[in-house]
């Protein structure tokens, strides 16, 4: 929902220097979350190692260098923590992800602030930004519903088009 698989895999299997859609923290976060859902106890136990590695990366460098993979990592880590019952930490991680997404301007449509003939941002970049924003929005509503806490992202503050499955 908030990870654009095609771009993530392209960057994962391509040259990683300067990639925009992959990071080791995101890969570790995805692995941790996936292993947490495993039916095998041994695999579930491995999830903690992946989680700790991802958490150490995003807490050290992610907060000072906001990026697409960092937002996605924090969201994965939020769902990981909530999934294992650490709701306060999961709530905090989700809040970091939502604020970072807003800091990066994902709630704004780049076509409103860039020249229409701009080559600065590709149509894929615009689509990924849109998916991250609405994925964060849906995650915010889901997490708030599950935990009985207030939402953080307001529908009215979004300038980006809705995702097709939402309309």
Automatic annotation (TrEMBL):
Pfam families: Fungal_trans. Residues 90-165 form the Xylanolytic transcriptional activator regulatory domain. The keyword DNA-binding applies. InterPro entries: Transcr_Regulatory_Elem (IPR051615), XnlR_reg_dom (IPR007219). GO terms for biological process: DNA-templated transcription. GO terms for molecular function: DNA binding; zinc ion binding. Keywords: DNA-binding, Metal-binding, Nucleus, Transcription, Transcription regulation, Zinc. This is Xylanolytic transcriptional activator regulatory domain-containing protein. It comes from Fusarium oxysporum f. sp. cubense (strain race 4) (Panama disease fungus).
């Amino acid at each position: 929902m908030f990870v654009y698989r095609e771009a993530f895999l392209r960057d994962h299997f391509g040259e990683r220097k300067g990639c925009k859609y992959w990071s080791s923290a995101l890969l570790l976060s995805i692995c941790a979350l996936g292993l947490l859902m495993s039916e095998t106890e041994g695999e579930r136990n491995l999830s903690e190692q992946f989680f700790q590695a991802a958490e150490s990366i995003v807490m050290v460098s992610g907060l000072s260098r906001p990026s697409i993979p960092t937002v996605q990592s924090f969201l994965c880590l939020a769902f990981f923590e909530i999934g294992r019952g650490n709701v306060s930490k999961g709530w905090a991680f989700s809040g970091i992800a939502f604020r970072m997404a807003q800091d990066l301007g994902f709630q704004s449509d780049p076509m409103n602030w860039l020249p229409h003939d701009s080559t600065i941002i590709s149509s894929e970049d615009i689509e990924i930004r849109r998916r991250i924003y609405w994925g964060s929005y849906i995650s915010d509503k889901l997490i708030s519903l599950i935990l009985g806490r207030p939402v953080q992202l307001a529908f009215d503050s979004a300038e980006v088009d809705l995702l097709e499955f939402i309309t």
